[in-house]
Amino acid sequence: MIKAEDVYRIGIINKPHGVHGELLFTFDDDIFDQVDADYIVCLMDGILVPFFFESYRFRSDSTALIKLEGIDTEQQARRMTNVEVYFSKEHAEKLEDNELTWNYFVGFLIKDIDKGEIGKVTDVDDSTINTLFVVDHKGTEVLIPAQEDFMVDLDRKKKVITMHLPEGLLEL
Q1: What's the whole-model pTM score?
Q2: Where are the domains of the chain?
């Protein structure tokens, strides 16, 4: 059984493409093309289900047409509309730290070298030029800049990011 903490969100299947089960996939992370993994994980009726690629081809830098095993008709493909797509953190860990995307860090604990434990990353806000970690800090949502300049240490096994945050950032 695939657990939510073992995967992270990389995109969404938008709609069927054609009549042979091909799907339009919008992604924020092209990791599926960077590591040797032949499947993605889809959230189907609250359950994480692996689907193996038959093929995929890029349409742009954020969309691809994908063909998944077992999805061979337009009707089967329609069931996949608006399904969230995830990727295995285990496969992502094969990449070097500088090749990871910010979404990989959802679920990581943020620690500050002065203030100690801040909280867990619950989401990543990349809607502006400055990417932010959305962190649950004692029941309150805080935004922390996802900048390598602030990162002191990264422990991928323990899922901890140690940072040196600017003074007053948490008081904002």
Answers
A1: 0.73
A2: 4-99, 104-171
